[in-house]
Amino acid sequence: MTVSVATAGPYYSTGEIKFSDLRRDFRAQQPRTSSGGSETTDPSQDSGAISAVELLRKTSTTDTNPIVPDSTENASIGSSTNWKLSQFRNSIKYYYISQSGTNTNLDIDAQSWNSNLGKNIVKLMFIDGTCGSNDAAAAAVGLDVTTYNLTIKVNGYILGAGGKGGGTTGAPSISGQKGGDALSIQSPSGNNIVVGVSTGARIWGGGGGGEKGYNGSQGSAATCVKSEQFKSGCQQGAISCPGGWSQTASWEQCCEEKRGCNANYWYRICELKYTTGTPPAGYGGVGGLGRGYNNQAGSLSGGAGGGAQCPSCAGGYSQQGGSCSTNGGYGANGGAWSKSGGNTSNSGNGGAAGRAITGSIYSVTGTLNTDTIKGTYT
Asked: What is the CA radius of gyration of the chain?
């Protein structure tokens, strides 16, 4: 990550200050068009006389191109009275900040503007590298303070995050997460905030996460039965079923038939029974991750459903009744850049698409097509 600061100026740190120099540097000068460029001069404005009235510091925030702008560096220049040439010592005309390399969640207003965002000096922010976000809840680039006369010139990439799939950590339990916004301009008030889009730039909103798959059907419990035959010795009387067992049949049989059956075997059929738990429904597959800075080339696919279970009896027991649960359905796919996530027959929805630019008090100019901008921006 590299963020650098520059100004048009400071001017006249030493030496004589001439009206012709002020005319060139303040009335005729035009701002840079690239971070590596320099200011240009409008010949039609660099001629003729220039008066002290024209060189008063303009403080109105409705002035979109003041000759002498209001800035922290220009605070000593008179705005109505007590104006002097000497007040232009170390004055500036424009303020620039350039980004290169890679940044995540770049906060424009946190950069070194020297308290100038809320003043009318013309400011340019060049995005030459890549700015992204790994969290769909946070824009890749953001501005959220009152700002005047700022152009955000996008030559590189601003990429929103892909929304998480429903049922994944950090996402809703069923619905997919909304895709992340690329550029967020939430200036509470302000004026003349312009997003300039160059050919080859990308301002792409993230795709929404896919919806979680539906759960399968629940199974039913089974009865598990163990049956055993018990008999007494050759003696008078009967035996009982062991504790916890229940009797299902009994009979007696002569032990010594040839001797007149003076004693009998006593038989009991005893049964031990329990009911299994109800097999839970198979779980639905998680939704797929949307396309975004955090998923530029990975899979968008939702997960497979599963979790089908059957009732099961312990060894030695026979099973009566019961049914298996069924698998859940597949999770829906995550959305492509600036597209909503897919839906399933579950009770939620796929995540909404992320915006290319969100907020208010801004305009968009330059090369505007489906290659440079993906997602809504007005």
From this structure: 39
Which amino acid belongs to residue 36?
Answer: G
Sheet containing strand 122-127, edge to edge, reads: 2-7, 94-100, 122-127, 147-154, 190-197, 363-366
Distance from C-alpha of 228 to C-alpha of 263, rounded to nearest angstrom: 23
Ramachandran bin of 244, using left for φ above 0, alpha for ψ from -120 to 50, beta for the remaining angles = left
Residue 300 maps to a domain = no
Number of H helices, E strands in the chain: 1, 21
**What is the tens place of the pLDDT at every residue in 218-235?**
999 999 999 999 887 766
CA 289 from chain center: how many Å? 10
Please state the φ and ψ torsions of residue 25, each to the nearest 5 degrees: -80, -20
The tens digit of pLDDT for each residue in 305-358 reads 999 999 999 999 999 999 999 999 999 999 999 999 999 999 999 999 999 999
Domain that holds residue 79: 2-212+353-374
Q: Are residues 118 and 198 in the same domain?
A: yes
How many alpha carbons fall within 13 Å on the CB side of residue 59?
Answer: 8
b/e per residue 14-45 (b: at least 16 CB within 10 A): eeebeeeebbbbbbbbebbeebeeebeeeeeb
**What does the mean pLDDT of the chain come to?**
95
Sign, CA dihedral 188-190-192-197, equals negative
Rama region for 224: left / alpha / beta (φ>0; ψ in -120 to 50; rest): beta
CA nearest 307: which of 293, 289, 327?
Answer: 327
Tell whether 229 and 207 lie within a shared domain: no
- 11 and 111, same domain (yes or no): yes
CA distances from 255 to 258, 260, 267 (A): 9, 9, 12
Distance CA 68, CA 85 (A): 12
Q: Is the domain of 181 the same as that of 265?
A: no
**What is the spatial distance between Cα 330 and Cα 87, in angstroms, rounded to a whole number?**
71
pLDDT over threshold 70, residue 259: no
Q: Are residues 185 and 229 in the same domain?
A: no
Residue 106 to residues 49, 160, 184, 225, Cα–Cα distance (Å) = 44, 12, 10, 67
